[in-house]
Amino acid sequence: FYMIPHFNAIGGAITSCVTQTTLSIAFVLFCTRIIKLSVNFRWIGSLLLYLLFTITLAAGVVSFLHTNWLVQASVFMLLCFSGMFVFRFISIGSIKELANKR
């Protein structure tokens, strides 16, 4: 109730980030304590590194690419999608395997 009226879009972004982070931590705690699922720290580490990568990438795209915001967003999305392959969240072999099943 405080952030959005006082800080507008930035306040909304901060509120959303805090909410999503809190929910993510709550989900991990729920899954490990109540459902008794194991925690894959390597996967969580990869996700945190990808988050750091995207934040750094966003700052770099905005500061070095002085064009229309739509071009900046397109470049950012393309680089983030490429990063998903680098961090092995998407596997080309798995995509081929899914395509061959049809």
Summarize the structure.
Helices cover 81% and strands 0% of the residues.
Number of helices: 4
Report strand %.
under 5%
CA distance, first residue to last residue: 50 Å
The helix/strand series, from N terminus to C terminus, equals HHHH
What is the mean pLDDT?
Answer: 91
Compute the number of strand runs. 0
| Overall body shape | flat
Share of helix, binned: over 70%
Structural class: mainly alpha
Largest sheet: none
What is the secondary structure topology, with strand pairs?
Blueprint: H1 3-33, H2 41-64, H3 69-86, H4 92-101
Describe this structure in words.
It is a single chain. The radius of gyration is 18 Å and the shape is flat. 81% of the residues lie in helices and 0% in strands. With 102 residues, it is mainly alpha-helical.
